[in-house]
Amino acid sequence: MKPLSFLRQVLAGCVHPPLLDDLTLPVDVRQRAQTLLDACEERSVGSYTDSSGLDYVRQSIADFITRRDGAPCSASNVFISGGSQRALMVMVKLLAGTEWDVPTGVLTHVPCPLALPMLLDEAGVSLEPYELKKDQRWAVDVDELHRALTAARGRCKTRAIFISNPGNPTGHVQSRKSIQDVIRFAAAEGLLLLVDEVYQNYVFGDGVVFISYKKILFEMGPLYSDTVEMASFHSISSIGEGGLRAGYMELVNIDPRVMHFVDTMLCTDISTSVMGQLALDLMVKPPKPGDSSYETYTEERIHVEKTLKKNCWSACKVLNNLPGVSCEPLMGGIYLYPSVNVPPATIKQAKERQVDAGALYCEKLLQEQAVLVGPSCSHGPPPATHHFRFCILVPSDVLEEALRRIQKFHHNLLESNLVSVI
Ligand SMILES: Cc1ncc(COP(=O)(O)O)c(C=O)c1O
User: Fold this and answer.
1) Which domain, by its residues, includes 73?
2) Which pLDDT does position 273 carry in this prediction?
3) Band of the pLDDT at 420, cuts 50, 70, 90?
């Protein structure tokens, strides 16, 4: 999507301070750039920062969380990193430790974010899958959490539970009750909550709202809010600036001695990109009513939301008209997760090649029509139905073209299957 003008203008002023005298830039842009530069060492984005991030930005994030949740957040519990995935890696590596007799396990929903299995693997941690309830729009089921925890016993020591809300790739948004259930489960089993809330700004559907885990944790009273350990993640990737590489995590109820190690591990990066950190500040502290950039900023944000909604409806309509494909509208997030009955000849071909049939479907789509969708991550035996993850946060004309190509590909695939069956 087109970048947010306010964000890019402020960053431009920070990179090239003579622009701060350019009266064609809105006054609030110039003021913000000056304030952010003042927060940098030597007033330069070329300087390093503390390994946990600029104090100024950590405070802005803490203020944002406090406003959002109505629960206190201290800047000392906020750690900025080169993307939310980097912060997640730090936490997972800490959990992995080296002194345990058995490997560490992390309960992880399946389907899960595409890169997560690799991240856990690199940290030497075992992915312990819990299935989401497909017939309940991919909701979390507490009985399934208990089943997964029991199944993991003997294989590993489960120390944490990972959850993405809004869900990647399912688009599920958890209800208050569902979050309470997960918190109670984590409390009873002594698990650290690893909560990816990166898509918190993208929530649609009647009556669907995003509520943070932190908010619910504090609403549940001191029995939970003083004890349950949690790391929650957010990122500038959610506003289309992932390439600037910055995200943060808030740690709750983590032992200060462990926080010290978090800081130490972030030290190995020396410093998160300063431009990314400044973008984080702008994400959590956008223009206010009355600021000169407020109108444009609001229009641009609304345009993104409208595009996503429109894309969702047109993609569902097209996909649901394809034989063997079924797609539910999003509750939140940026991915559709349609199911597809991969035709028999393609399944046979996948077996011969010893690859997942869903992945082969995606590979053929990429090769034949240059449309990139992601296969679902399969754990265990091959699934009866395959899914693919389809990012729809793109300009509508790009989406329409992608849909035309998917239609063409799918019909061609069915026809060639018929021919090979005959
Ligand atoms: C679930 C999830 N979390 C986080 C991210 C972004 O990671 P980062 O903040 O490291 O760019 C993505 C990007 O695709 C994602 O899908």
Assistant:
1) 48-284
2) 96
3) low
Write out the two tokens for 44: 């330069």
Name every residue whose Cβ is closer than 8 Å to that of residue 119 and which is 6 or more positions away in sequence: 85, 88, 89, 92
- CA 208/CA 193 separation, integer angstroms: 23
* Predicted confidence (pLDDT) at residue 205 exceeds the cutoff of 90: no
| 280 and 176 inside one domain | yes
Q: What is the CATH number of the domain that holds 377?
A: 3.90.1150.10
Distance from the alpha carbon of residue 168 to the mean position of ligand 1, in angstroms:
9
Nearest residue (CA) to ligand 1, atom 6: 237
Give me the amino acid identity at 92. Answer: V
Q: What is the pLDDT of residues 152-198, one digit of tens each?
A: 998 999 999 999 999 999 999 999 999 999 999 999 999 999 999 99
Same domain, 261 and 312: no
In a domain, residue 239? The reply is yes
Within its chain, how far is the Cα of 249 from the centroid? 12
Q: Residue 169 and residue 129: Cα distance in Å, rounded?
A: 15
How far apart are the CA of 414 and the centre of ligand 1, in A? 34
The overall average pLDDT reported for the chain is 95
Probe residue for ligand 1, chosen from 122, 202, 235 as the CB with the greatest number of ligand atoms within 8 Å = 235
